[in-house]
Amino acid sequence: MLKLSSIKNQVAFVTGGTLGIGLACAARFLSEGARVAILGRNESHGADAISFLKKISADVIYIKGDCTVSEDIDSALHRIDEKWGSLHILVNCAGGFITSPKLDDLSVAEWRKGIEWNLTSKFLTIKAATPYMKKNSYGRIVNISSVAGRGGVVAAPIDYSAAKGAVVVLTQRLAVELAPFGITANVVAPGTTMTPRVSALKHRRMEDVIARIPVGRLGDADEIAHAILYFCTPGAGFTTGSVLDVNGGVWTGA
Hints:
Rossmann fold, seven-stranded parallel sheet, two-stranded parallel ribbon, 44% helix, globular
């Protein structure tokens, strides 16, 4: 009988895998017996991540690269194929923002950068990864959106929110196109989660954020990783184009 919940021996590629949700996702996959490649731009973060992850399993590699650069993505996938000869899972965690500008303060350059980081990066990785999945008529793609992109009133930059909303539509369209090849595409939309970026918030602002969450706390990266895992299992083959909101009960209006 097919082990519907097992990803043992499968090969996973996690972008933004050196910190936060991406790192938690990589750790969870390794604990489930998968082989994992993580991609990130910062070599210091990569070294720290590998040191942590190798305590779980030796079947992990760090690849330095930028998800907004096609050549970096192509190189990373080539390395994964050379090492493990297959690709089953792609989780797009890379993204983020630096500032929180309102419309009047948002420059065109900042807008373009936000879209590039949070939307174009996913398009590039998916476009490059799907040929490897099509060879085996199997694949699991999970794109990370956000509560900010789900239609609610969330204090996040306009470019970030717009890109995260577009991630949902992109994924739903891809779900239709990729279904005949045995490839699913789904979205996990986290609420505010305790990551290095969030932990840097000032105490007062943190209190304001938590006050808006019905369960009365921030999310944990491991909880988001647990949600991601379901979409990546063989048993999720009939689940595609779906969005799983993991946000502590925040109503988004989506």
